[in-house]
């Protein structure tokens, strides 16, 4: 695990990745490794949200608002996805914002 994140972290897609919409899903290419990654509809929405630096808690709020998912499940899924993207070097995790 490269960078640990929480809802208080800020994340942004790294410049060394490009993504393409595939009819509601998204494919991400890591330009450094040449690896492709696929994301479903919700993952595609998260990918769209992190094109600019955004607080994880804000991403969670958007997903909970736009999709029919329970708060605990949605929060856990978003945090897991973002952590996986961070572990693969596809997003940058920035310092937690002050309380």
How would you describe this protein?
The protein is an alpha+beta fold. The protein has a domain at 10-14 and 42-94. Helices cover 37% and strands 27% of the residues. The protein contains 3 helices and 6 strands, in the order ββββαβααβ. Strands 5-1-6 form a 3-stranded antiparallel beta sheet. Strands 2-3-4 form a 3-stranded antiparallel beta sheet. Helix 2 (56-66) crosses helix 3 (71-87). The longest helix has 17 residues, at 71-87. The relative contact order is 0.28. The mean pLDDT is 91.
Task: Give a topology summary.
Layout lengths: L9 E4 L3 E6 L2 E6 L4 E5 L1 H9 L4 E2 H11 L4 H17 L3 E4 L5
Antiparallel strand pairs: 1-5, 1-6, 2-3, 3-4
Helix pairs in contact: 2-3
Count of extended strands: 6
Please indicate the percent range of residues in DSSP E strands (runs of 2 or more): 25-35%
Q: Name the structural class.
A: alpha+beta
Largest sheet: 3 strands, antiparallel
Q: Average pLDDT, to the nearest integer? A: 91
- Give the termini separation: 25 Å
* Molecular shape: globular
How is the largest sheet built, in terms of strand order? 5-1-6
Rg value: 13 Å
């Amino acid at each position: 695990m490269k960078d640990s994140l929480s809802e208080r972290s800020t994340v942004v897609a790294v410049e060394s990745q490009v993504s393409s919409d595939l009819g509601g899903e998204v494919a991400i290419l890591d330009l450094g490794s040449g690896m492709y990654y696929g994301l479903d509809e919700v993952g595609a929405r998260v990918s769209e949200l992190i094109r600019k630096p955004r607080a994880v808690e804000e991403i969670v709020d958007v997903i909970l608002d736009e999709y029919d998912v329970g708060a605990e499940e949605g929060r856990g899924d978003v945090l897991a996805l973002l952590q996986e993207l961070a572990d693969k070097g596809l997003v940058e995790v920035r310092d937690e914002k002050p309380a």
